[in-house]
Protein: Sensor domain-containing diguanylate cyclase
Organism: Pseudothauera lacus
Amino acid sequence: MKNASALLISVLAALGAALLATLVLWLGVENGRFAGGLAVLAVAAFAGLATHCHLRRQWQRRNGEQSALAEHVRRLGDGVGGVDESALQTAGALSGLATVTLEVRRLREIAEGVHGVEALFGSALELQWISPSIHRLIGRTPQECTRAADPIALLVHESDRLYCRRMAREVIESNAGRDFEMRLLGDEGRVCWVACHWRPQHDDDGQVCGVRMSAEDIQGRKEAEYKLLETVAELRRAQALRENYLSRSNDERQRLAALLNVIRLGILFMDREHRVTYYNRAMLDIWRMPANENLIGVRDVVLEHKVATLLEAPEAYFAHIREVVTSRGEVSEPHEFRLKDGRILTDLSSVVSSAAAGGARGIGRVWIYEDVTEQRQVAEKLVALAERDPLTNLFNRRRFHEELERLLADASRRGVRVGLLAIDLDGFKPINDEFGHQAGDEVLVTLAREVGGIIRRNELFFRLGGDEFGVLVPDAESTELVGLASRIVRGIEALRFTFDGRPARLTASLGIALYPDHATNGEALIAAADHAMYRSKNEGRNRCSIAGED
Ligand SMILES: Nc1nc2c(ncn2[C@@H]2O[C@H](COP(=O)(O)OP(=O)(O)OP(=O)(O)O)[C@@H](O)[C@H]2O)c(=O)[nH]1
């Protein structure tokens, strides 16, 4: 419409020029200057024609620009995908820069409203434009960013800066995109991880003229990744620790098992349900079980059945086990028992507490068995050596004093008597002298045996040294003592020896003393008996005398 108006105006202008020329011509005729008026007419006609041509060219150019702008806007509309056909038609119908400005503003609004960060860099990596969303991410304004002399130094964390520059330059040089993750650096040291995509930008000639960066916030994902990595590291540490403990525990167990297998003590672990959980080699040896016997999981009743035939007194032993198991004590007293094969064993038991729960919970019981047969034999030998005369095997003087004190204390308590016979051989030295020391020994051994056969079970017979002997009689009475002494005198007198084919004999002198009749303590009783014995010697030997009768 405006174009038609322009054409009309140009025609009117030409007609105006023609009228003006006619008027000038009339004035020229009037003034007699026809030639000058004709020239003015021609100039006016030419001016009108020139004006018409100029206006026509302007009209055509405006039409061309209008079409180009409509096409440009349509392309832009295709680029953002948001302009419909009617809008295009409207745009095409519109003319002038105002239309373009409107569309650019819309596009700018779209670009500035994106959630991620969009930025345009020039070929020297100078920041040309950045979306306002940068402020949400790291707290910096777009103006602050674009004003920066080195925007990458401002925006990118120093650890990622070098890499970022290299990647951006590669985009420009290679004309190919790059995708990577980096940290943006905000005000007050705020850091935000982003996944960024760098793409080359081209001018109208298709040359790379800059680079566009699109970045999306992945801080949440990175934090989750860090947490995950920390958790994984924690788990790895815990796993390593557990493996270390397990390895050390296995080593400890191996050492313990090796130790338990070389010791002579039999060891048996039972759990709370009275089932076997561990035993060592010595335990099988002690209980005469085969080395390949498998007892793991076997119940206590089955074990009792297995060992019952070995025990000298099985019922008594099982009663002892029940007593230990039901007792409150943590560690039982050592218990000695005998096997039918003559061996002597001991056991002791302890509750095993769990390492967990502060050791408050019992998880079973350990039994320790020891074969003490040899120990007992050695001990018996030592006792015998200490208490007995090695030649005659009679109790010696040491034991005599112990028994004397014990019997006197007992007699004192019960108000009974204790009798003491002091025996000294007559003419023993001549046997030694005539037949030798060995013959003398034989006499002593024979005499000990014969006199031992004369005394009763509750009476104690001692060799006190050399050819001296003694007999202690508990609950003694004077007449019984005299009777016993007489039997001994006669028994010794009746002994007959032959050495080197020659006969030998001997007698004995005895002294009798009674507690408390003749003495009130041991030493005094010995002195009284000795005194009576010497009286027997003095009165002709081979007889007995009672204390207090001289
Ligand atoms: N064979 C032997 N002789 C011993 C042993 N112990 C002591 N004698 C001897 O026993 C003798 C004891 O001496 P006496 O009591 O004077 O001998 P005895 O001829 O009986 O004298 P009386 O008592 O006066 O009759 C000594 O000769 C000792 O050497 C021994 O273990 N074996």
Remarks:
- Confidence is low (pLDDT under 50) at residues 76-84.
- The radius of gyration is 67 Å.
- Residues 1-112 form one domain.
